[in-house]
Amino acid sequence: MKNLLYTGKKIKKTRARTVILEEINKIKSHPTAYEMFKIVKQRLPRVSLGTVYRNLDILSEHGLVLKLKMNDAQMHYDGRTDEHYHIQCVKCGKTEDIPLEMLNNIDTAVQDKTAYRVLYHTISFYGLCTECTEEDVTGKGNKV
Amino acid sequence: MKNLLYTGKKIKKTRARTVILEEINKIKSHPTAYEMFKIVKQRLPRVSLGTVYRNLDILSEHGLVLKLKMNDAQMHYDGRTDEHYHIQCVKCGKTEDIPLEMLNNIDTAVQDKTAYRVLYHTISFYGLCTECTEEDVTGKGNKV
DNA sequence: ACTTTAAACAGGAATCATTCTTAATTATGA
DNA sequence: TCATAATTAAGAATGATTCCTGTTTAAAGT
Ligand SMILES: [Mn+2]
Ligand SMILES: [Mn+2]
Ligand SMILES: [Zn+2]
Ligand SMILES: [Zn+2]
């Protein structure tokens, strides 16, 4: 079994998949599937949006990208795969990483207090980025 | 200005709105708009799903219900309006309250470490409820 | 390199939650 | 009561995501 996208993973290396992974690893942002589609399309002009969706799902199932649900309609994807938290600006929708250590102990705390076997948790912060805090008067901000 | 749903709030008391609020306050679960629609329809047979959506939004904008985004496709609504965290079973989708004190200090911590003005955060736990842990072998569970 | 076969693909249709539009109904209040 | 504004029901529209189908591509063995 050759040509693995990532050694030791049962994931085939295909044209679209490779470009998607390369491109999402180049950026520090948290793009939507459509934003990735526009980026990937520059290298693979015939790629389809469905292919981008499908491969982002496959990559996230194999832990090669993260799939994030924030407070807007679309899913966001993240090339950084170590567990970390995010903040989203409620005005412009920008999503960024949080330099906060993971709170692993809260899973245990919750498991002890409930009848659940706790597998994981997510934390999302919401607030105003610098730009949006400043232009508070102008009202130029987009909605999330 | 009479007929307010809640004293001191600028929110009028209408037939559908009143029933929706009464019914969501009766239950401890975290229904979707459609589940609320089915419940409300028993008292108001001519109510429409759009009215349920609109009023749940209005109620949540006024802080009379919470609107929750968990890891399934629909929004969930919560008649309990004090801040609290939730856990969702990854197998059956059931969503329940967590008896964990709010971590208010993390907002400050994040604000100090980032360029954001932090307004709020959400924490969601995911795991297996007792029923779904037990029937692990049977494979009868629904997907979330 | 050639063949076979399963997986991946493009393009477009379908799905599904949610929002929007509009005309009718209901509440407010002078 | 009459005028006006808000709410509603019904169904259309929207938008993100998934699914379907016929075609192309990659992988594994010759
Ligand atoms: Mn990230
Ligand atoms: Mn709750
Ligand atoms: Zn911003
Ligand atoms: Zn369960």
Q: Can you characterise this structure?
A:
- Two copies of one chain form a homodimer.
- The first copy, chain A, has five helices and five strands, in the order αααββββαβα.
- In chain A, the strands form two sheets. A three-stranded mixed β-sheet of chain A has the order 4-3-5.
- Chain A has 144 residues and is α+β, with helices and mostly antiparallel strands.
- Chain A has two domains: 81 residues, Arc Repressor Mutant, subunit A (Orthogonal Bundle); 62 residues, Dna Ligase, domain 1 (2-Layer Sandwich), CATH 3.30.1490.190.
- At the A-B interface, helix 4 and strand 5 of A face helix 4 and strand 5 of B.
- Bound molecules: manganese (II) ion (2 copies) and zinc ion (ZN) (2 copies).
- One manganese (II) ion (MN) binds next to loops of chain A.
- Chain A binds a DNA duplex (30 and 30 nucleotides) through helix 1 and helix 3.
Q: Briefly note the CATH topology name of the largest domain in chain A.
A: Arc Repressor Mutant, subunit A
Q: CATH first level of the largest domain in chain A: which class?
A: Mainly Alpha
**Roughly how many Å apart are the termini of chain A?**
44 Å
| Major sheet size, sense and barrel closure of chain A | 3 strands, mixed
* Name given to the CATH homologous superfamily of the largest domain in chain A: Winged helix-like DNA-binding domain superfamily/Winged helix DNA-binding domain
CATH architecture of the largest domain in chain A: Orthogonal Bundle
SSE succession of chain A:
HHHEEEEHEH
- Secondary-structure-based class of chain A equals alpha+beta
